[in-house]
Amino acid sequence: MAKAGHPYPQVEPGVAALADPRVVTVPARITVARALVRARAAGARVVVLGPRRAVREGELARAARWGLGPRPAAPMAWRDLPTLPDTAGEIEARRALLAGAPLVLVRRGRRVVGAVDGERLPLPGVESSVLGRLERAGDRPSEARLWLLRVAGKIGEGMGAPVHAVGGFVRDLLLAPAPPGRRPAPASLPDIDLVVEGDGIAFARRLAEEIGGTVLVHRGFGTASIEAGHAPAGAGLDRIPLGRVDVASARREHYAAAGALPEVIPAPLAEDLRRRDFSVNAMAVALAPDRFGRLLDPLGGQRDARARRLRSLRPLAFVEDPTRIVRAARYAARLGLRADAATLGGIRLAVECAPYPALSGQRLWRELELAAAEPCARTVFELLVRWKAPTIWNIVGANPAYLAAAERLARWARGAGLAVDPAELALLALLIGRPPAAVARALDRLALSGEPRLRLEAAVLAGPLARRLDAARLRASAIDRMLRPVPAPALLGAWLRAGARGRRRVQWYLARGRAVRPQLTGADLLALGVPRGPRVGATLDRLRRLRLDGALGSLAEERELVKEWLTSGKEA
């Protein structure tokens, strides 16, 4: 019987109490298929491929289903895993898992005798408060956003469905410095992503009623988008626009094939965070009134945010969805994040596993459009080229020099008030110098057809035009005659391929040359006696050429010249 006031020793359970002994060690160079056979024969849940490197049996099985059985297993394994002796305490393993480690290997001497699996061990995650950051902005749009988040939390509480803000909204909140005092209001509010542990669509409809928004439902994914209305005047916010809110039911995902759209299954919030792409996107802020502003960080995202580190959540993340590679480049360029070694290894693996028949060209093109719309688009595409990611678009051997040139061209076009499609220009820069067959394969992969395809083909194959533009002596009228029948994208392609002289000529033509017109009109020519019909157009064209070459000045000069042509009988 326990005695009151008697001191009893406190015994901490060892790491062995958490570890699963079902592990098997295999040669480092083994294939996925062979490693899977060895794991199943040994009844192992974890396969060890060398010091601090291991992979779950389920991950090997998924890779095999995707047709990766003949490939080496090592690139699909977790690397740099923490290892503990079997005499270590439980708390050490839990700390490693809370820091973001997926597995902790347990060794006896040099032999791995067990593994602590973060997916099988419920972890509360690191909690802290970000309420101060939410409230500190001080500008009216941010106050409206805070009002919206509080309303969402109250609605979720009333429905018995906990609601959390997740994704980019939380990531950017933690990445941004928390400046003292008031900040200037942003031009527009960022989108807000909400996750509901329950019926996300029903919640979205209820929230839209409350804030006066319009709902678009994506039932197959259990998601909805709200084009939000305005904060009510009664809240003292003067009907400030609320932006867009994306709502999803908490879920896990199953990828039937590499690159396919996932099948979704309802799941708790912890699993929803774990299935995401990067640790900095796997944090959540509670919105329930009694926990409002509490940050949930079960995978070490806050630590990575402080270190400006981009860390993928599993080695096969980019094989599951190769469009994440473009997302990684966008985050790295825009947010100043640096991909860690494991993330770069996952990207290399995904590039090597191309092509992805289940990944549609439309999805690839959409990611290319998003990359081209970034403020630092050139850096995004330079990263993608460095990672050899354009291979997934059937583009091999892209020249980064054309990306720099495309950036200069886009800057000049904006200054000249000319509209240029950034996605088409970026793709053009990636394709310049490729042979026609290679260009066709890339456009096929991106499912481009019709007018967009014709424009890009003409632009990529504008090398001969560029060479003619670089000729030493060309009159302005000759440049105009050369460029007038050329579609605008082909002019951009010629600019990219041309030297300094040719580029100046394209810019002159686009900014000034093509707008040059005679001062006389067709009606004026008829009044002077030019016969109706093709002679009117031919005369106007001849006058335009002379004006381009600087041979005409005033309206009177044009009129006298036309009279001379008519008197002499010379054809225009």
What is the fold's blueprint, element by element?
Elements: E1 23-25, H1 32-42, E2 46-50, E3 53-56, H2 57-65, E4 83-85, H3 90-98, E5 103-108, E6 111-117, E7 126-129, H4 131-136, H5 140-159, E8 163-166, H6 168-175, E9 192-196, H7 200-211, E10 214-218, E11 223-227, E12 244-249, E13 251-254, E14 263-266, H8 269-274, E15 284-286, E16 294-297, H9 301-306, E17 309-310, H10 317-320, H11 323-335, E18 338-339, H12 341-352, H13 361-372, H14 377-386, H15 400-415, H16 422-431, H17 436-445, H18 450-460, H19 463-469, H20 476-483, H21 488-497, H22 500-511, H23 522-528, H24 534-548, H25 555-568
Parallel strand pairs: 1-2, 4-5, 9-12, 17-18
Antiparallel strand pairs: 2-3, 5-6, 7-16, 8-9, 8-15, 10-11, 11-12, 13-14, 15-16
Helix pairs in contact: 1-2, 5-7, 11-13, 11-14, 13-16, 14-15, 15-16, 16-18, 16-21, 18-21, 19-21, 19-22, 20-24, 21-22
